[in-house]
Amino acid sequence: MDILVDLNDLAIGRLVVGPLGNNAYVVTSSGESVIIDAAAEANELLKAADGLGVRAVLTTHGHQDHIGAAQKVTDSLKAPFRLHPDDSHIAGLEPDEPLRHGEIIKLGTRRIRVLHTPGHTPGSVCFLIDHHLFSGDTLFPGGPGATRFPYSDFDQIMASLDDHLFTLDDTTIIYPGHGASTTIGAERPHIEEWRTRRW
After folding, report:
1. Does the model's pTM come out above 0.70?
2. Can you give the CATH number for the domain in which 137 is found?
3. Which domain does 103 fall in, by range?
4. Is there a contact between 117 and 164 (Cβ–Cβ < 8 Å)?
């Protein structure tokens, strides 16, 4: 596991798993952890999370490449599978505890805020911890996530970016569902370009 952040009361680790190179994150604060997107390679995720007090598996959206290991991981850790209910039909799984927009999830000394950001899927969410944003497939370096899938909508994903993500400070670090990290400030100048090209 690559350690991206290592502070006194916050650690962020990333594993790249599965055939599509999904980012799975382990976020820890003061002896409590969550896994964000148990995408694939359940045994590797379980090894990375061993002894970290995993309280939940948080899921950015219901596409299969983001939930492939969720069942095994949640069963093994006795931790709830959390997903926005609008993506249950895509995932083929009902969440143990549904995610809601604006919900605050306590993690050690930190707080995770849930942002409902539909467009890539109806139930896509992002997770914000201070200036760390886990964007799933809502935002990548270079633009929003794909909207060529069933139930996707380009105008909706752009509205999600306008209303929720680009209201954040430029220093906010974006940890996407695939690929390298970026910042809100690095992506902000390109919004109108994305809107014009419509992908």
Report:
1. yes
2. 3.60.15.10
3. 2-197
4. yes
